[in-house]
Amino acid sequence: MKGNFAPLLIVQVLLCGLCVGDNPPMEDDRKSCSDLLIGQYLCAPPVISNETELPVSCEPDNSIEVVCKAADGVFCSDLDGNQSFTKRVPDGCRYSSGKDYQTALLLSIFLGWLGVDRFYLGYWAIGVFKMCTFGFFFVFHLIDVILIAMQVLGPADGTAYSLTYYGPHIVPLRFSNFTDIGREL
């Protein structure tokens, strides 16, 4: 009788291991899909509008909403019937109020000495000043052409220019306390 317990114990351990290994977590143990790590889901590219050539779901805070699918074996509480969920991606687009970059640049080149470019962008006070002083004797005219061409001077409401998808996007590099410069030790 002493030797009969070993095979029974091995079979019992194997059966318990098989039962526990494949069970998904209980409904109350699941995390939210927004808490998944980067390798646990895959997101589809955003839907691009044919008219604006920008993502359709672009919000004023420059975020977009994309459809993501959880990886096989990953379970979270926000999943619908086909293992997909929506995720908000920050800095996924450049929200535009409709001010066109090419229009602003052409107005600045040809009518900038009258302040028409500043009126178009929403800077009314500077536009009146440029109109009264002929572009501050053509000095501000040339400075505004350079600033608009480099996209340093944008619309007054803080949004980005309306550009084509493959247009001349200039992304400024901003530094903060969280910027990693990559110093060598």
Automatic annotation (TrEMBL):
<keyword id="KW-0732">Signal</keyword>
<dbReference type="InterPro" id="IPR007829">
    <property type="entry name" value="TM2"/>
</dbReference>
<dbReference type="GO" id="GO:0016020">
    <property type="term" value="C:membrane"/>
</dbReference>
<protein>
    <submittedName>
        <fullName>TM2 domain-containing protein</fullName>
    </submittedName>
</protein>
<keyword id="KW-0472">Membrane</keyword>
<feature type="signal peptide">
    <location>
        <begin position="1"/>
        <end position="21"/>
    </location>
</feature>
<keyword id="KW-0812">Transmembrane</keyword>
<keyword id="KW-1133">Transmembrane helix</keyword>
<keyword id="KW-0325">Glycoprotein</keyword>
<comment type="similarity">
    <text>Belongs to the TM2 family.</text>
</comment>
<dbReference type="Pfam" id="PF05154">
    <property type="entry name" value="TM2"/>
</dbReference>
<feature type="domain" description="TM2">
    <location>
        <begin position="98"/>
        <end position="146"/>
    </location>
</feature>
<dbReference type="InterPro" id="IPR050932">
    <property type="entry name" value="TM2D1-3-like"/>
</dbReference>
